[in-house]
Amino acid sequence: MSDTGQRKKVLFLCTHNSARSQMAEGILRSLYGDRFEAFSAGTNPTAVNPLAVIVLSEIGIDISHSRSKNVSEFVGREIDYVVTLCNDAAGVCPFFPGGKEYIHHGFDDPADTSGSGNALSSFRRVRDEIKEWTTETFGHRRTDDLSKEMSFEYR
């Protein structure tokens, strides 16, 4: 918990808010919900991908009641960290004005299984990558120290 006793707000963004951002929201909420309040949204929301629900349930995280949200639902809200997860350059990822800090870390779209042949294994791989990155980024830092160590970065 931050020195002010308030949880920092984190908004995960992707285009459709169907897989990567939903998984990141669920993972952060499950692992570090005592320090961070997690949200997710997209610029063109569709529906939560059922495979995202399945692979998170495999690690004990329930997002079965989640819904895809439009980024416009968060306009006017104070957000501490805006995190874009698109695997393209951050310039083509959704943008949210009003975030205090911006972080970009690209992950493959698990719904794009061209070449992999197995959608479920693609979702599991991306889930594990997001969980590892979330642990590295948010897990061992005090919320007050995160902004000192994180800046807008491309990966």
What does this structure look like?
The protein is an alpha/beta fold and 155 residues long. It has one domain (8-149): Rossmann fold. The protein is built from 4 helices and 4 strands; from the N terminus they run E-H-E-H-E-E-H-H. It has a 4-stranded parallel beta sheet with strand order 2-1-3-4, with helices on one face. The radius of gyration is 15 Å and the shape is globular. Residues 148-155 have low confidence and may be disordered.
Q: Do you know the CATH topology?
A: Rossmann fold
Helix content: 25-40%
How many distinct helices? 4
CATH superfamily: Response regulator
Total E-strand runs: 4
Beta content comes to 15-25%
| Strand and helix order | EHEHEEHH
Q: How far apart are the first and last residues' alpha carbons, in Å?
A: 28 Å
Strand order of the largest sheet: 2-1-3-4
Structural class: alpha/beta
What is the total number of structural domains? 1
Task: Spell out the key features of this protein.
155 residues, alpha/beta, Rossmann fold, four-stranded parallel β-sheet, 4 helices, 32% helix, globular, disordered C terminus
Give the helix/strand layout:
Layout lengths: L7 E7 L5 H13 L3 E7 L7 H8 L21 E6 L14 E6 L14 H21 L3 H7 L6
Parallel strand pairs: 1-2, 1-3, 3-4
Helix pairs in contact: 1-3, 2-3
Can you describe this structure in just a few lines?
This protein is 32% helix and 17% strand.
